From TrEMBL:
Protein name listed in UniProt: Xylose isomerase-like TIM barrel domain-containing protein
Pfam families: AP_endonuc_2
Domain of life: Eukaryota
Xylose isomerase-like TIM barrel domain span: 25-135
Gene3D superfamilies the UniProt entry points to: Divalent-metal-dependent TIM barrel enzymes (3.20.20.150)
Alphabetical list of InterPro entries matching this protein: IolE/XylAMocC-like, Xyl_isomerase-like_sf, Xyl_isomerase-like_TIM-brl
Species in which this protein is naturally found: Penicillium brasilianum
Length: 176
């Protein structure tokens, strides 16, 4: 393979929650095996926490696992959509897609991330955003009503960063 990064995410819908473990030690043991295998091929492993993950769906949960894995080639895949949606988003609230305490929670999470995560442990950074899903729209994309809301939003309504509900100015964008 001629790739430097192998990206893997935690368990996702439609897997049955009862059939997978939430134990960080078990997850870390498996991630460690993957990391050691990846070292043979000079690969880094980027571990991602999609906001619709079944058990461990925040960067904090990933950090807990990475601390147990303790390999230099296994680190975070941080996705701005997943962090922002988990902390601030309300994907199906057309009138108020950012929860009332959302920006405060997001700032707190990002401050914690800055204090907790060693930048050398960030293997991959993905910048993404999404628009709010309006269930009344004619071509509404949510066909599986059991599918987690953030999953629908990410898969059907995501696009270029900072063009969705997290506006440019509130995100600190000042231009290039």
């Amino acid at each position: 393979m001629r790739i430097p990064i192998f990206q893997i995410c935690l368990a996702l819908y439609p897997l049955q929650e009862s059939k997978i473990t939430s134990d960080p030690k078990t997850i870390a043991a498996n991630m460690r095996k993957l990391g050691l295998l990846a070292q043979r091929y000079n690969l880094c492993v980027a571990y991602e926490a999609p906001s619709w993950g079944i058990h461990k769906n925040t960067w904090q949960h990933i950090q807990e696992v990475l601390d147990l894995v303790n390999l230099p080639n296994v680190g975070h895949c941080l996705d701005t959509f997943h962090i922002a949606s988990k902390e601030a988003g309300d994907p199906f609230n057309v009138d108020s897609p950012v929860r009332p305490d959302g920006m405060k929670r997001l700032r707190h999470s990002l401050e914690e991330l800055q204090q907790t995560v060693d930048p050398s442990r960030i293997v991959y950074l993905q910048l993404s955003d999404a628009t709010v899903a309006d269930p009344k729209q004619r071509a509404y994309p949510r066909r599986d009503l059991n599918q987690p809301a953030f999953m629908t939003q990410s898969q059907k309504l995501s696009h270029i960063s900072l063009r969705g509900e997290l506006r440019r100015n509130s995100a600190g964008f000042t231009g290039c």
